[in-house]
Each structure stands twice: as C-alpha cells, then as structure tokens.
Amino acid sequence: MKFFIDTANLAQIKEAQALGVLDGVTTNPSLMAKEGITGKNSILKHYVDICNIVDGDVSAEVNALDFAGMIKEGEELADLHEQIVVKLPMTKEGVMAAKYFSDKGVKTNVTLVFSAGQALLAAKAGATYVSPFIGRLDDVSTDGLALIEEIRLIYDNYGYETQILAASVRHTMHIVNCAKIGADVMTGPLSAIHGLLKHPLTDIGLAQFIADFEKGNK
Ligand code: E4P
C-alpha cells in the first residue's frame, strides 16, 4: 500500500519524506488555507514546492464547479509539474472532467467520495485515484472501512485500474485496516504514520538491550 501524507505543511512533508516511506501528497483547499496559502500565485508556487520535496504524486484540487472552469484550472495545475494529479470533486461536472483528463493522459483524483456508486462512476470515467473519505463516514456513525471493502470488491470484479486512495484517515488503525482490506493508497496525517512506529514492548526491549550492552562494555 502506498503512503500519502494529507497536508500542505512543508515541514511535515519533509519529515515524512525523510522517514523514507512517503509515496505522495494530497492537499485540499482547506489544508492550503490552514497553512495560510492564499492567492493564485502563492497557491501554484506552493504546489511546485511540494513536488520538489516528495518523489511521487501530488494532488492539487480545482476550485471551479463548472466543467469549463475545471478544465481550465486543471490544465494549469497539470502544467505546473509532472507529479501533479488534478483533484476533482465527485459531481457530474467532476466526473466529466475526470473523463476529459483521463482521455488526455492527465492523472486525476476524484475526491469527496462517500458511496460505492460514486466510486464506480469515477472508475468508469478513468480516474487514476478515487478518494473515499473514511474518517468523515465514521464521524456520522457509518462504517468508512466497509466502503473501502465494497469498492475493492467492485473494482476487482471488473479489473478497474482506478486506485483506491483511502482518505480522511485519522489514526493508525485506519492505516492497518486499509492495508488488510487492500486499499491501494492511504492518505493521512503525519501523526497516524508515526503511530505505526509505537509499541511498548519495542521500548522495553530496547531499554534492556542498551542496559545489557552498557553493563558488558564499561
Ligand atoms: C483527501 O484527499 C482529503 O484531503 C482528506 O483526506 C480529508 O480528510 P479530513 O476528513 O480529515 O479533512
């Protein structure tokens, strides 16, 4: 399973890249705003900065809601850097734009997916990635991981090549369960990736090894 980090924070992206397990980055307008990145030129520059840190796909989301606007914005984003993936909302216009870009060989990520039917449409449109938001489903008492299972089954039934990008990952067990189900990619916060490192028996075992080494090498 590929690991993407879900942030526009350059320091966190650098930290995840330094860990050596990072395969890409996802951003969205809220994450860009959180970093104080506003204005077209700053936003475009920030995407290039991210691409220069990470080896892998970087999702950059369009803000237009109409088809023509999505195409214009998406083309501008795709021209920025070869690592850019055009992120499109799961709307009628977004699906049409995903088809347009996939016919042109431009990578796409269809976002804000909350049902298997939406994921089926994204695959039919030739999207590179589909982003089901598991955390936001969990937030409304709906099993987010069950949606990943449903999409996996549907895509495997027909051999769709669209990659399941489990999004809105909130914690370490989301990552582990996505890997068990067979999500192609997960995108989550640095804290969830770091959570995978932790086990008290590792800490206890390491402390013992160090103590024994020090005893024998005084
Ligand atoms: C996906 O690409 C989104 O950026 C993201 O995963 C949303 O996560 P949130 O529900 O934590 O905002």
From TrEMBL:
Localization in the cell: Cytoplasm
GO biological process: carbohydrate metabolic process; ketone catabolic process; pentose-phosphate shunt
Pfam families linked to this entry: TAL_FSA
Reactions catalysed: D-sedoheptulose 7-phosphate + D-glyceraldehyde 3-phosphate = D-erythrose 4-phosphate + beta-D-fructose 6-phosphate
UniProt keyword Transferase, yes or no: yes
Molecular function via GO: aldehyde-lyase activity; transaldolase activity
InterPro entries the UniProt entry points to: Aldolase_TIM, TAL/FSA, Transaldolase_3B, Transaldolase_3B/F6P_aldolase, Transaldolase_AS, TSA/FSA_arc/bac
One cellular-component annotation, GO: cytoplasm
UniProt enzyme class: transferase
Principal cellular location given in the protein's record: cytoplasm
Positions of the catalytic residues: 87 (schiff-base intermediate with substrate)
Keywords: Cytoplasm, Pentose shunt, Schiff base, Transferase
Pathway terms, separated by semicolons: Carbohydrate degradation; pentose phosphate pathway; D-glyceraldehyde 3-phosphate and beta-D-fructose 6-phosphate from D-ribose 5-phosphate and D-xylulose 5-phosphate (non-oxidative stage): step 2/3
EC number: 2.2.1.2
UniProt KW Flavoprotein keyword: no
UniProt similarity note: Belongs to the transaldolase family. Type 3B subfamily.
Free-text function comment from the UniProt entry: Transaldolase is important for the balance of metabolites in the pentose-phosphate pathway.
NCBIfam families from the UniProt entry: fsa_talC_mipB
Protein known as: Probable transaldolase
Origin species: Flavobacterium luteum
This protein's encoding gene: fsa
